[in-house]
Amino acid sequence: xxxxxxxxxxxxxxxxxxxxxxxxxxxxxxxxxxxxxxxxxxxxxxxxxxxxxxxxxxxxxxxxxxxxxxxxxxxxxxxxxxxxxxxxxxxxxxxxxxxxxxxxxxxxxxxxxxxxxxxxxxxxxxxxxxxxxxxxxxxxxxxxxxxxxxxxxxxxxxxxxxxxxxxxxxxxx
Length: 173
Prior knowledge:
Layout lengths: L18 H20 L2 E2 L14 E6 L8 E6 L5 H9 L31 E8 L5 E7 L4 E4 L2 E2 L7 E3 L5 E3 L2
Parallel strand pairs: 2-5
Antiparallel strand pairs: 1-4, 2-3, 4-5, 5-6, 6-7, 8-9
């Protein structure tokens, strides 16, 4: 009696890059991070560019810095400009403010708007789509020099970049 030959697992070859490509990828991470920060939309001003949603989904909008006070989840419909949607949400006046919430703009809490609890200078640096297709806002605070999303910090990793047909490193979409 002979033993049955078991099939071997297929191995996906690891991508091999030249030292120049590896260095270029590190530079691309720095450049893309700087670009995201520079192009981030300030929340206290009307957005200057559009980011149109193509499918019906949900967007997660934190109530305070680093999502410490939870988040609001809103439905978004196809054709909605996400930048305008986020601006309108955070431009609303709050009628009730919890005592322990930190207002980064004013201590008097007179005519308080939602964006005042996100940081001194909150900006929308982009959007992240999770595995369920729901949207999370990537925040950049120009005063604190901090980038965060939900309850954690965000970074662009080298593994998030791919080579396009021109040989440039771009974000994997």
